[in-house]
């Protein structure tokens, strides 16, 4: 099974400040931002709204892409975000959706112990 790497952009609720980061676990990392579990720029400026992300195949390409985006002007970052997320919504719920499996009958005692 191959591992995924992500480049992402977060912002505050007013979308006035952007932060570009890289991670190998997007859900965990955004959770950390949202709950201010790591002190730094994102916690100081309340950058807990996931506006953009893209998947990379290896850590090197993710870091190269992160550095590329960090060099973008504010306008170019906004254009990049709005291509994927024109409403500028928080994408966290999208990446954490849980699919429920419904059973037509209750589990037997054997199935519950497995």
Concise account of the structure shown:
With 114 residues, the chain is an alpha+beta fold. The chain has a single domain, classed as 3-Layer(aba) Sandwich (GIY-YIG endonuclease). Helix content is 39%, strand content 18%.
Note down, in words, how this protein is organized:
The chain has 114 residues and is α+β, with helices and mostly antiparallel strands. It contains 6 helices and 3 strands. The protein has one domain: GIY-YIG endonuclease, CATH 3.40.1440.10. The two termini are 25 Å apart. The protein has a 3-stranded antiparallel β-sheet with strand order 2-1-3, with helices on both faces. The C terminus is likely disordered. Helices cover 39% and strands 18% of the residues.
Any descriptors?
disordered C terminus, three-stranded antiparallel sheet, 6 helices, GIY-YIG endonuclease, alpha+beta, globular, about 110 residues
CATH architecture verdict: 3-Layer(aba) Sandwich
Query: For the CA atoms, what is the radius of gyration?
Result: 18 Å
Oligomer: single chain
User: Which spans of ≥5 residues are poorly predicted at pLDDT below 50?
Assistant: 98-105, 107-114
Q: What structural class do helix, strand and pairing data support?
A: alpha+beta
Shape, principal axes of CA atoms: globular
- Helical proportion, percent range: 25-40%
Count of helical regions: 6
Q: How many runs of DSSP E, i.e. beta strands?
A: 3
CATH topology: GIY-YIG endonuclease
- The number of domains: 1
- Secondary-structure element pattern, one letter each: EEHHEHHHH
Order of the strands making up the biggest sheet: 2-1-3
């Amino acid at each position: 099974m191959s591992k995924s790497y992500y480049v992402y952009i977060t912002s505050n609720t007013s979308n006035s400040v952007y932060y570009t980061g890289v991670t190998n676990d997007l859900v965990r990392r955004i959770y950390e931002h949202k709950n201010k579990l790591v002190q730094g720029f994102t916690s100081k400026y309340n950058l807990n709204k996931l506006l953009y992300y893209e998947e990379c195949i290896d850590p090197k390409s993710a870091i190269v892409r992160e550095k590329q985006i960090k060099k973008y002007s504010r306008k170019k970052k906004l254009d990049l975000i709005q291509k994927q997320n024109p409403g500028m919504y928080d994408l966290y719920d999208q990446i954490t959706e849980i699919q429920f499996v419904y059973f037509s009958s209750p589990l037997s005692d054997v199935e519950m112990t497995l």
